[in-house]
Amino acid sequence: MEPDGVGFAAERPVTALLETVGLTRFFGSVRAAEDLNMRVEPGEVVGIIGSNGSGKTTFLNLATGYLKPERGRILLEGRDTTALLPRDITRLGVARSFQIPQLYLGMTVLETMLLSVAARAGHVGVWGPLKRPGWADEGLQVLAQFGLDPHAGRAVRELPEGSRKLLDIALAVALRPRLLLMDEPTAGVSTEDKFEVMDTLLGVISGSGITTIFVEHDMDVVQRYSQRVMVFDQGLVIAEGEPAAVLADPEVRRAVLGHV
Amino acid sequence: MSARARTTFLILLGALALLLGVPLLLSGWILFLLTVAAAKALAVLGIVLLLRGKLLTFGHALYYAVGAYAAGMTVKYLGVHEVLVLLALALAAGVATSAVLGLLVARYRAVYFALLNLAFSMVLYGILLKFYSVTGGTDGLGIAEPTLGGFRLGGSSLRLAMYELTVVLTTLLVYATYRFFMSPTGYTLRAIKDNEVRVEYMGVSVWRAVYVSYIIAGGLAAVAGGLIAISVGHITPDLAFWSQSGEFVFVAILGGTGSVLAPIVGSILFEFVRNYAFELSPYTWQMTLGIILLLIIFFLPGGVWSLTALASRRSAR
Question: Cβ contacts (< 8 Å) between B202 and chain A: which residues?
């Protein structure tokens, strides 16, 4: 890549961690993304806000290879990942959590976590045990970061919804990603608990320096926890910038709250 | 080792010593039944392994027959009689076949997985039936005068040697399968049962885990086939028939899927029930088996093996 001017480059590196170019995807006549161009720089915490059906989750599905765009490209540190599968993109350092926790209900919390740790270690053996001391320590450490260590021996099936949500995110963090994508981290979490959950999450994230994009429909959460916000409306980015300013815009408020 | 693990280990060691020592006490016929049961338990173990990933096959007899015919045809056409060589070839044939078919089969799930396996097994059945000049058709092939370490086996020496060999091999393979269950790929298979999408989002290939599991299951069934071929001394295309696959599934449910040991218990129980049900009532023995299956499904959905969990819970109380 051609370096730009020095002053500009210092503020905005030539190669973004994640960049999308003209990303477009329709579902029939429904526009989920059209000509979506975004850059996320290393270390940023970006919030994406929008009403239901504005294309937030579709964006995560496109960025992780679960859905393929009709047009456009996705670049991870300049490398085109548009054609890759979710597991390949995950291996390149992009981890993702889900709006509805995607867990293994038949296992214990620790077993689930150990699968993530084994995946982080790139280990898919058929002989050595999953439950080995080194991995168990690592797994318990991640669980402890999320306050889940007391539940380590419990069946995932028995966990309350809030803990499942945290475990879902902990599994992604255990992969030690460079980029973490979170889909509605406070969805399903009670209003009283949502700030506590976000404090926990952001504590872990800022502690480990993971670049983060999270999708939310809650204005308070986005305003408080993101450094930069992007507003989605019917597949388009209608506003972008510093949270307080963007979210004060009546047009944005109408788009986010309007057609819920 | 925890006290509980040590107790379990000692119980298992005792059971193995008992099984190895059984020939001192029991008649030849029962010894033969136990050999058949222990060998077939390996094929059932393959079913149980796949069921951990919610993969049900109605064609596993395919690999059972591949193992049996690999052994039988090696004796007939290559003149090799050494039991351990025959078993190694059975295993190799099973692994090679499942590695090829698995490339396709591992992409399918649920009823498609079950029926695709069934279809392949019936194709093999047809081949074994029609290529009379090579396979002997419905007459099958006889396996003459196997040797073990150069010693020719026959009659009671064959029975005894195959019994001990089967017990040892089954023990080793059951242990290996246990290791697999506890390994990252073994756990991944369980994870696949619950949520394939999440597995992929951990950066782990679902396809690979299913493929590897399928090959292991195929290899287990092929060793079972090799052991049966040598022990019985005669093989026919029926080894690949769908009802044989159904029997493996039946025994898997009968024994339960909660432990690598369950197939052994289920298999021994099945062989004895079938044998005695047939003796008591030659025309309704299948009904007897059907009723037993119904009772298991309604009252012991975890299979006979779940009784041990009940027992250990009671003793812990």
Answer: 87, 90, 115-116, 119, 171, 175
In A, minimum Cα distance to B53 occurs at A106
Specify the residue for token string 């049966």. Answer: B228
- The 10 Å Cβ neighbour count of residue A205 is 19
B307 to B253, B255, B266: CA distances (angstroms): 13, 10, 12
> What fold characterizes domain A20-93+177-260?
Rossmann fold (3.40.50)
> How far is Cα B250 from Cα B40, in angstroms, rounded to an integer?
12
ipTM of the complex: 0.92
Q: Which two tokens stand for residue A179?
A: 């980029």
Q: Which residues of chain A have pLDDT under 50?
A: 1-9, 259-260
pLDDT of residue A2: 44
Question: Domains of chain A: which residue ranges?
Answer: 20-93+177-260, 102-176
pTM: 0.93
What are the angstrom distances between the C-alpha of A40 and each of A45, A82, A181, B105, B193?
9, 16, 12, 41, 35
Predicted confidence (pLDDT) per residue in A21-52, tens digit: 999 999 998 999 999 999 999 999 999 999 88
Q: Which of A61, A66, A81, A87 to mutate to test the interface with B (most CBs of B within 10 A)?
A: A87
Give the pLDDT of residue A1: 43
* Side chain identity, residue B202: M
What is the helix (H) or strand (E) element at residue B120, kind and residue range? Answer: helix B110-130
What is the spatial distance between Cα A127 and Cα A139, in angstroms, rounded to a whole number? 20
Residues B101-110: contacts with CB under 8 Å, at least 24 apart: B101/B62, B101/B218, B102/B211, B102/B214, B102/B215, B102/B218, B103/B211, B105/B214, B106/B207, B106/B210, B106/B211, B106/B214, B107/B207, B109/B54, B109/B55, B110/B54, B110/B56
Binary contact (A102, B195; C-beta < 8 A): yes
Alpha-carbon distance A260 to A185, whole Å? 18
> Within chain A, where are the H helices?
6-11, 56-63, 86-91, 109-120, 133-145, 161-173, 194-208, 219-225, 243-248, 250-257
Instruction: Decide if B248 contacts B61 (C-beta within 8 A).
Output: yes
